[in-house]
Amino acid sequence: MKNAYLILTLSLLTLASVAQDNLGIAGSTRSPVNTLWNNPSTIVDSRAFIDFQLAGLSTFIKNDLVYLRGGELSIANFDTMTTVPLRKQNTPYSAFVDLQVGGPSLTFAVKQHAFGLSTAVRMVTDVRGIPAKAHEWAQNGFDNKNEIGKINSINNVRTNALAWGELGFTYGTIIARQGFSMTQAAITVKKLYGFAGAGVRLDSWTYMIQDSGRIETKEFIGQYGFNDPTAGIFNGEGWGADIGVTYKVRHESSEAYVPHSPCTDGDYLYRIGVSLLDVGRIKFKEPFYTNNFSQNQSSIWEDYQGTQADDLEDIDSLINNNFNLVQENGYLTDFSMMLPAALSVQGDFNLISNFYLYGVITYGVPWLNRLGVQRSGYLGIAPRWETKRFEASLPVSMYQYKRPQVGLCLRLNSIIIGSDDLGSFLLKKDIYGADVYVSLKYTIFKHWKCGAKTKRVKYTRQRGSHAPPPCPVW
Length: 474
What we know:
single chain, mainly beta, Porin, elongated
């Protein structure tokens, strides 16, 4: 049992890894391949005519239980649970991991229309509601004399993990113009290919520890489901979508404005965007294990400290046998998991010349009665200096609306590297996660007909003619 807690605890910090929405580059006007993940309508009237990503990687890890001590990047202290640094708190623990490996992706403009093609492999893990007693369990298990004979309850625990690949197609256009303002909208439709999914929804567990070898369950209500990822590569399919709208006020009239026709300024006073992200689900194929359960009678879990499970079928049997669960749907039930859907509102303001202030608030949609990963919410601002060849931003955000973090993002032409959380490393504070993103691209900023030089006319002086006119100044 203690080994199981070790694995669980370490996973909160090291389970592999769009760092959360890549705040440092999310407001850019010259990186549409990167900004469409937060609002697909940003590819309309982008200052990049063609943006092609060769490869990208972003990772975001956060938890509030396990940490690395400030200034120490070694994991030598993780040998046993008695040496693992654990944070003690009176509120439930949580963890969130978001890994995205970006493949070849492309956006391009055709006058007032914009198109995009994106590929990515993603993995998201979401853990919420782990009781505050987990700090004690991780070090001592359930073998606590003070807990024996007492009735305890665990409520509203959510643990979900989902790994998938996606192929997305984006279309956007200007849908309205009036005076100096215009409104643009876009949608991304994504074909999803599921690799692995697992989820546990524990609404209520009322139990009593009888002694060091037995736990009596009095009530157990919830749901679980997981597929067998060793059965193949593509173990499920589904569809997803991102939808975005942006209202923009420009410096000049928008009545006859057509982006990249052939030239465009793409400049504005401010813009306000709203987007709905990752709406969809993945339905997994057999073999999978799933069950809804509602137990309201006592059952005994014998020798819980010595419990072992060698494969997925053993885990399924362990849950059912030790809790006397009544299987209502079992192996014949469809098993699907929801994507990390979110509602996001963005604002970007041109303060002076090339200096902008980008702000965003994102709310992760909770899946109360379904299995699925929930995106973490945050509030952030990112002042940036942006030119054609260089861009720098200083993202400041509140993870889960309460934990401050500061980062840095740089773009040199088409190469992007950034992090939304550098504070712990710079200040040598205790580290509860990691956040970094990179992108290697090739960008054509202007339409090939824009800014073309007038051809020089060859002049041949004839004998006896007058001196040629002076050459024009180009």
